[in-house]
Amino acid sequence: MARLKSRQMQIPNGFKFLQPETNWSSRRFASFDSIVTSLLAHRAGRPDLVAKHKWATDYENVANEVEQFNVNLCLRHGWTSYVDGQDFGGGPIPKPVTLSQHDQSQVSAAAGRVTKIWAGVKTLNEWIDSGEAAVPAELSAKRAVVCAACPKNGQGDFTTWFTKPAAAAIARQIEKVQNRKLSTPSDSQINICEVCLCPMKLKVHTPISFIQSHLNNTIYDDLPRQPMCWIVDEMSPK
Fold first, then answer.
1. How do residues 27-82 score in pLDDT, each as one tens digit?
2. Sign of the torsion angle spanned by Cα atoms 54, 57, 58, 63
3. Would you say residue 127 lies in a domain?
4. pTM of the predicted model, to two decimals?
5. Same domain, yes or no, for 93 and 144?
6. Residue-range definition of the domain harbouring residue 55
7. What Å distances lie between residue 73 and 13, 18, 25, 133, CA to CA?
């Protein structure tokens, strides 16, 4: 089975993916990881279609789908230098776990949590991949102080809150942010927001425009007002 030589090296015109059933497509020149996490979030929001089409909803299988889509794209266009024909022993793409045995209400409930998780991952991916600067250190420190005092500041490591694929994606994001030397004096006191399920050590550095674009009304309404969440404060009319 042909594979990409590297998931980190863009192919001509950039990696792509199309979900024909919903006409969802990846944004131009998104990284491989961003496409996978965005597709996971898209599928999490459509549990009805997940059940109908037996779409994969785990990182590994979705990553394999995205890779094969781009392998086929390369082969159609003759971009063979980006493809390795060697079989790495992985065999065919594993079939996604069927959801037909699950009650639809259970799928919908689980999808709500998964949607939150991957919306947060997508928000941070879009900011990190954009190359846009973090907010000023003074602002990120101020945000972190609010999070440290917030009753929704959840405790426990990433595996307590996230599936392994989501935890792995967040770990990669943290590594990228650490490489940019971003931190606050309150890092040891902040963890996961129980409302939006975002890792606040990363989110406090993110420009509000990226956060706002993926913040749905349900999450916004659930954010604390006493004490005032910094997201609510920054989005409120001045």
1. 888 889 888 888 888 888 888 888 888 898 888 889 999 999 999 999 888 888 99
2. positive
3. no
4. 0.54
5. no
6. 3-102
7. 11, 11, 14, 33
